[in-house]
């Protein structure tokens, strides 16, 4: 995981960088972030264009391309490392695009963590409001 930013109340946002981290997040939170992470990784990988025709060198830069092209998956952790919120936000440098913010078992994280979600949005320069980012609102 990579550090993203601090949030109020001794909480911290981290980016999920590897599929194994997404798998662990799915297990800890009881939702399907792993499936979404894998799908987005595969889409970004399919769009990769090698910069050389030399076969052995064609994958140089692929991982960096994927990390730039796919949405960022982030997790909010408390000071004990417990997962509290998972979010999918647009790729770095993009301020628009789909976002999903969920709590354990796809529960609404906004009642307990709105201040932390707002801190992430400020840090990224994007709006992460409940109306557009929480997909299971009734």
Tell me what the structure shows.
The protein contains five helices and five strands, in the order ββαααβββαα. The chain has a five-stranded antiparallel beta sheet with strand order 1-2-3-4-5, sandwiched between helices. By secondary structure, it is an alpha+beta fold. It has helices at residues 19-29, 33-46, 62-69, 110-124, 130-133, and strands spanning 2-7, 11-15, 72-77, 83-89, 100-102. It has one domain (2-133).
Topology of helices and strands:
Blueprint: E1 2-7, E2 11-15, H1 19-29, H2 33-46, H3 62-69, E3 72-77, E4 83-89, E5 100-102, H4 110-124, H5 130-133
Antiparallel strand pairs: 1-2, 2-3, 3-4, 4-5
Helix-strand category: alpha+beta
Query: How many separate domains make up the residues?
Result: 1
Count every helix, treating DSSP H or I runs of 4 or more residues as helices.
5
- Strand arrangement in the largest pleated sheet: 1-2-3-4-5
Termini gap: 32 Å
Number of strands: 5
Helix content: 25-40%
Could you write a compact summary of the structure shown?
The chain has helices spanning 19-29, 33-46, 62-69, 110-124, 130-133; strands at residues 2-7, 11-15, 72-77, 83-89, 100-102. It is α+β, with helices and mostly antiparallel strands.
Q: What distinguishing features does this structure have?
A:
138 residues, alpha+beta, five-stranded antiparallel β-sheet
